[in-house]
Amino acid sequence: MSLTTQDVQKIARLARLAMNDTEIEAARAQLSGIFELIEQMQAVDTTGIEPMSHAQDLSQQLREDVVTASNDREAFQAIAPQVEGGLYLVPQVIE
Amino acid sequence: MKWEIVIGLEVHTQLSTNTKIFSGASTAFGAEPNTQADAVSIALPGVLPVLNKGAVERAIKFGLAVGAHIAPRSVFARKNYFYPDLPKGYQISQMDLPVVGKGALTIQVEPLSGNAKPYEKVVRITRAHLEEDAGKSVHGAAQSMTGIDLNRAGTPLLEIVSEPDMSSAAEAVSYAKTLHSLVRWIGICDGNMQEGSFRCDVNVSVRRPGESLGTRREIKNLNSFKFMQQAIDYEVQWQIDTIENGGKVQQATILFNPDTGETRSMRSKEDAHDYRYFPDPDLLPLDISPAMIEAVHATMPELPIAKQARYTDEFGLSAYDASSLTSSREMAEFFDAGVAMVGAANAKLCANWLIGEVSAQLNRDGLDIAQCPISAAQFGAMLARIADGTISNSGAKEVFRALWSEGGDADAIIEAKGLKQVSDSGAIEKIVDEVMAANADKVAEYRSGKDKLFGFFVGAAMKASQGKANPAQLNEVLKKKLAG
């Protein structure tokens, strides 16, 4: 399967990536290569094998429901581009 | 032409954990902005999520309460979209393998209009999955900027999805209310709708009977049952008008404006529904053992549905009464405490008072049962005096009013107000004799066939007793003596 330029443009837009034509063409070739690899893998007979959602066959450890975090707002906001009254500021969002 | 309404609900319940779903930051409501937003909540690079056991236990609790299958293995996925209150650029949710599978909820539907009778309905639950909440946008914090408070980001949510089984606003509201009372009953959510702990998205479509499903529109973020009913009513009419005028309903996400009572389409976000879900590599699959389910099961209270069955079977209450009494755990506990004092034989009396007088007073004063000024013990002591004939129902109302406004105890109020009924048969016979002697002409008329005069004698005798005669006893004595 080969991706079209439009496919790549859509993927870039969804990922909020600004790409010029040269970059899109390069990405198209690379992504198509990945799709070819996936096609090869899909040719393998996996009948009777349970699908995995993670590369490691382990299960999630659970954390006790106890507050462990401290208030580090000052440290975090010191490196934020813009803050006011404890809020992080971003360009206006209009709904 | 008739139309059928098809409604399904997605409800986001905030789970009542101490900490966030993937980090040890507090979830307490109302803190200063971003003071409960730790490195995970604000998505600093390099942080990793660690799942909260308390959130998983609450999800299991819900699954057990609706008779659902608890997935032995469920998987967290990334739902990708960009919005400033979602700092990672994705929400961790569950897609293909949710923690709770198919279940069902039995509801008592109270029709919103007309004289239609309440009826029972079973609404199927499709699934319930764990996910994290987003932060909050604050507008007007600074010129041309939006403020972001990430205290709420990462708060655990259980999204409960129903099948499109509801066919009126009344059914949708009954389902939402029943679900609301259930999640509070089992202690997984505080149910505070003003604070956003229980948020409903309602999918509405209409069709001609027999046709396949129409195109649905989704009303987002309803946080009151009243608004839900208004929004559905408006939306249904809008869809019917649109189709009858030759138009077509387009699938859309809409908002309800409580000020105008109208629904309107949200600005459609391009690619908004292209979420590109995939399993989150930061989280391993969640395995839930039978032992863990058993441990959660052991902490479950008696469920409303089981209590309802007990109330109808043991006490002979109607399904509707049983449902009213189990509208909250506090209400049911109040009822149980009352019945414990007056015995099962007087359960109906206890139910009538709770659903009638007590609920009416609570409504009037804007209180809920947990804030009732009369304790279950005070209430039970009053009922006991009705049950043993010490006071009449109208006397009890006076006792009740005094208990409500001044407190105290029923016996002392009965004594102080002289509300004790005369149940001494000798005293009643004496009153009846006097009344008959003073109205000999009417006695003769009655005996010659004028039955209607019986009411006159009851009134006269009751008056002579200053309203204190036990009515049942008085009737009995009068009947006997008048018969001659």
Q: What does it look like?
A:
The complex is a heterodimer of chains A (95) and B (484). Chain A is mostly helical. Chain A has helices at residues 5-14, 21-42, 73-78, and strands spanning 62-63, 83-84, 87-91. In chain A, helix 1 (5-14) crosses helix 2. By secondary structure, chain B is an alpha+beta fold. Helix content of chain B is 39%, strand content 19%. In chain B, the strands form 4 sheets. An 8-stranded mixed sheet of chain B has the order 6-7-10-1-11-12-13-14. In chain B, strands 5-4-15 form a 3-stranded antiparallel sheet, with no helix packed on it. Chain B has a two-stranded antiparallel sheet with strand order 3-16. In chain B, helix 2 (169-185) runs antiparallel to helix 3 (225-244) and helix 6 packs across helix 8. Chain B is elongated. The interface between A and B is large, with 38 and 55 residues.
Key terms:
heterodimer; A: 95 residues; Histone, subunit A; two-stranded antiparallel sheet; B: 484 residues; alpha+beta; Arc Repressor Mutant, subunit A; 3 domains; eight-stranded mixed beta sheet; 39% helix
Structure summarized in a few sentences:
The complex is a heterodimer of chains A (95) and B (484). Chain A is 40% helix and 9% strand.
Task: Quickly count the domains of chain B.
Answer: 3
Mean pLDDT of chain A: 92
Return the structural class of chain A.
Answer: mainly alpha
Q: Segments of chain B where pLDDT lies below 50 for 5+ residues? A: none
β-sheet strand percentage of chain A: 5-15%
What's the number of helices of chain B?
15
- CATH topology name of the domain at 5-43 in chain A: Histone, subunit A
Compute the separation of the termini of chain B in Å.
67 Å
**Strand adjacency order, main sheet of chain B:** 6-7-10-1-11-12-13-14
Q: Quick one: biggest sheet of chain B?
A: 8 strands, mixed
Query: Biggest β-sheet of chain A, characterized?
Result: 2 strands, antiparallel
Query: What would CATH call the architecture of the domain at 5-43 in chain A?
Result: Orthogonal Bundle
Note the quaternary state here: heterodimer
According to CATH, what is the class of the domain at 5-43 in chain A? Mainly Alpha
Number of strands of chain A: 3
- The total strand number of chain B stands at 16
